[in-house]
Write a structure and sequence with these properties.
Elements: E1 2-5, H1 14-25, E2 33-36, E3 48-50, H2 55-64, E4 67-70, H3 74-82, E5 86-89, H4 103-113, E6 118-119, H5 127-135, H6 151-163
Parallel strand pairs: 1-2, 1-4, 2-3, 4-5, 5-6
Length: 165
Amino acid sequence: MIFVTVGSRQYSFDRLFKKLDDLVDEGVIKDKIFAQIGTSTYKPKNYEYKDFISQEEFQDYINKADIVVSHGASGSIMKALNADKKVIVVTRLEKYGEHINDHQIQNNEAFRDNNYVIMADLELTDLGECFKKIKSKNNGLVKWKNKDPYAIHKIIEDFIEENWK
């Protein structure tokens, strides 16, 4: 099962849910999908969804999932990694009104560059390839070892300092 989460902020992420519907229509995704769509206005056609779920439901979906697709919120990503799930990260972009700025780029890149997740390109054009890659034995991912919820902040800070001086 694939669990998709985009949080509860007031910004939609319609292009992600449309892309997932397209990938199901194209036969790229055959797994069952459940999505927490937040305030998105697009209503998925090919999979189950709810606007919002409780923390208990969130953890239950994480536990059931083989793959978690998460927006660039470090808390959501780390909850999936702490549950030993394979994670694909997608980035909300300011230019589409999906967030107030583009900070999720750096967050997602920090997780990707440490080989904890697979990151879709910013326009989601390679999302289908991300699903194929994450299912392969040679997906390049390393096991998340850090259960400290604050340690990722150091990784992200170091990454930003190194790349945006």
